[in-house]
What does this fold into?
Amino acid sequence: GEVYVVGVDTDEQIQQVFLDSSYVPEGRWPNADLASMLDVSTWATAKNGTLYGYIYDPEMESTNINWDNAIATINPDDRVLSYTRTVYNFTGTSFNYNIPLPDDKSRPQQEYIGSPYFLKGILEAVDAPGEWYHDVAAKKLYMQWDGKSLDGRVSYRVKDFCVDVVQEDPAHPAEIGNLQMHSCTFIVTNANGASVHDVNVSYPTYARTLRNREINQDHGPPPNVTLVSGNNTVVERVSLVHSNVAGIEFIGYGNTLRV
It folds into this structure.
């Protein structure tokens, strides 16, 4: 396919890209589309020789790419959570990652053999139609596409919240209803008897780099989680689809979630 280059007016790393309303995956190896990107059976696999802070996989050599400074998403020992780490000391068949995964030192080394992982975050990873890479310093977005032209409207995620409501008066409950949102979500704070209803959100929350809770730096859930904070709020007929991190978080008491 052709590689298209578009200037983008942002100093921040782009998190998600869309063609019209369809998700476009970031360039990665092994390649994956929306349907398979979270299926670890489609990821690469750490082979014998993998150690704490080090992944060995001869299949990386077939890419003919220097993956130094790329982002590795690793699912150690097929755990529930995955983590992202920066690649360095890439040799063609192996690499180190920068921050130890939680509990690495206390776990047997052999448990990391067979761990699924994939690589992204460099221009060379854009090697198949329907992939992108953002050069933050140059303010350029690269996309590879089939055909003679990129037929559609290219957009990218620019904010976390479409609706951010702070209930200021307990006597006048906040209400969010009858809305369609795309690539953003909603947050309600200081709620008292608030109502959230008939809201459909696609791609509400997304984390390009995945945080972890077990070590002190860069810990906790992503800051863009869909949030209802307060008491006695009713949330009903609300759908959130296509998020790689959190669903909806409730803080407070007496809150109700109805399907």
In short: Confidence is low (pLDDT under 50) at residues 213-220. The two ends are 43 Å apart (CA to CA). The CA atoms of residues 52 and 104 lie 6 Å apart. The longest strand covers residues 175-182.
